[in-house]
Design goal:
Length: 530
């Protein structure tokens, strides 16, 4: 049995038009936005200053010229750059000249970056010497297999003919730029790797622009808003919602270099007068802990995604700042936003309703009694995967429902009003004594017992029970009897009580703010059975 939810009947609003009638690309849309919002305040602000859309367009064409000199047409190019306006210029510029930008996670280490480059067939990486030195990435860059070029060097090599080309591309792009194709790859991102090896996700111009339009159809935002984005742009949440959405729709965008600067960010939000903040549960928890009175007074919308929003974080923001966090949900493969709660229709414990234009079905999974695996179809779905085992071979999305459908792997329940509740990952169920147990339930027990600490669980093989559940926690005094009391209080079955508890000073995190479940699984499997 499956639950069907469709929102295809809800039309995107005619008042918001992001792209030309046909073959829309990121470059086309930026060019149009630069014309529409010419002379108006706003643009991209980063650690180096403020850049207007017209200036960013100029930078994009400069980046296009530099990349084209080193990378053949229709080839991929690795982008290893921080959260600055120049990174967005590089992404848009690459795709304007038919090169495919592959955004690399500079915090992943040389081995993971090389694996990503292998999957996407990246033979050239563009980075910045200043960034590499400041971030201490020299040892990582030295181990990269692709050829590495620095923007400082490439910029110095631009001559009079290059400047003439840039001017022509700015005024009459059809004379020097290839014809745009909305179905062409706009960017390659990589899955977080929280549960295994990262996969390359190819997102077309159509997918990115459709998702921006879908978000705008749900959230009432406009040019008067300012987005504060510290989420890395190599992550889909940071790229689409945090950067492209404000850039292409007239809003001010404040890019910050790292979401981990917990003490500085609250004050920067106040200083920038930001009205919209995107973040993960982990980041929002830390920002609340370090915020001074008035730091969040300008915020009108705070949206949480990428990981589950806990009751403790939601209540703290309500109590201390009078802000209702809107929990949303998405995947890299869906560009990324699939659902979001809305002001006036915020149902805690859910991730809201599916966005306009997305059809979703909760398909039953063998062994899991409640809910079903969420499968989705819509214009924002990826073109396909790239895997290290088959470099350069695109694997289009498909499920038993047909081509173009994507199985999120999340077990969900959809209520009568269309609100989606995430019950857990299909991969994050353990088979204990022959029964399927959601690891999310085990984490809930720990949160109930010690709400002021962080908790995450993993499963490991067990000779007697099939699998055992291991809890990793920052609460050093937490014991199994505390979890048993929590199970009794919440009516949770005893099989969900973790078998082993490991206290850590801090849980391992990915650069996106997600808990690194892959690392925890390795740690759990290394533990001796008790």
């Amino acid at each position: 049995m499956e639950t069907v939810l469709t929102s295809t009947q809800r039309r995107l609003p005619a008042t918001i038009r992001l792209d030309p009638p046909a073959q829309a690309t990121l470059f086309d849309t930026l060019r149009r936005a630069a014309a529409i919002y010419r002379g108006q305040p706003g643009g991209i602000e980063d650690s180096t200053g403020s850049v207007s859309r017209a200036e960013l367009l100029q930078r994009a064409l400069g980046a296009a010229r530099m990349v084209a000199s080193k990378v053949p047409a229709r080839q991929t190019v690795g982008i290893l750059l921080p959260n600055v306006a120049g990174t967005l210029a590089s992404v848009i510029g690459c795709s304007a000249v038919g090169r495919v930008p592959s955004l690399l996670n500079y915090g992943a280490g040389a081995d993971a970056i090389n694996e990503a480059c292998h999957a996407a067939q990246v033979r050239v990486v563009i980075t910045s010497r200043a960034f590499v030195e400041k971030a201490g990435l020299g040892p990582v860059v030295d181990k990269l297999e692709p050829a590495v070029y620095y923007v400082e060097d490439l910029r110095q090599r631009l001559g009079p003919l290059d400047l003439l080309w840039i001017a022509t591309a700015r005024l009459a792009p059809s004379l020097v730029l290839p014809r745009g194709d909305s179905e062409a790859p706009a960017v390659i991102l990589f899955t977080s790797g929280s549960e295994g090896s990262p996969k390359g996700v190819v997102l077309s111009h159509r997918a990115l622009l459709a998702n921006i339009a879908q978000v705008l159809a749900a959230l009432e935002v406009g040019p008067e808003h300012a987005v504060f984005n510290a989420l890395p742009v190599f992550h889909s949440f940071g790229l689409t919602a945090g950067a492209l959405l404000p850039l292409l729709t007239g809003m001010r965008c404040i890019l910050y270099v790292s979401p981990l600067h917990y003490k500085q960010i609250p004050g920067l939000i106040k200083q920038s007068r930001a009205t919209i903040l995107f973040g993960t549960n982990t980041f929002l928890r830390h920002y609340a802990e370090h915020a001074a009175p008035g730091d969040f007074a300008s915020l009108r919308l705070v949206v949480a995604g990428a990981e589950r929003l806990t009751t403790e974080v939601r209540q703290r923001w309500q109590r201390d700042f009078n802000i209702d966090i809107l929990e949303g949900y998405g995947c890299t493969e869906t560009a990324p936003v699939l659902a979001v709660n809305l002001p006036g229709a915020n149902r805690p414990g859910t991730v809201g309703r599916l966005l306009p234009g997305i059809e979703g079905r909760a398909v039953a999974v063998e062994g899991i009694a409640s809910g079903g695996s969420l499968q989705v179809c819509g214009p924002n779905i990826m073109s396909g995967y790239l895997r290290a085992g088959a470099p350069g071979v695109l694997e289009p999305p498909a499920t038993a429902l047909g081509a173009g459908w994507y199985d999120t792997g999340d077990i969900v329940d959809i209520d009568a009003d269309g609100f989606v509740r995430i019950l857990g990952r299909a991969k994050r169920f353990a088979k204990v004594a022959g029964e399927m147990v959601s690891l999310a339930l085990s984490e809930d027990l720990a949160r109930h017992a010690r709400p002021d600490h962080q908790h995450a669980v993993a499963s490991a093989p067990d000779r007697q029970r099939g699998e055992r559940i291991v809890l990793f926690t920052t609460a050093s005094d937490l014991q199994r009897h505390d979890l048993a009391h929590a199970a009794h209080a919440t009516g949770t079955r005893e099989l969900a009580i973790p078998r082993q508890i490991v206290a850590l000073e801090a849980l391992p995190l990915l650069a996106t703010g997600k808990i690194d479940h892959s690392a925890l699984t390795h740690m759990a499997r290394a533990l001796p059975e008790d």
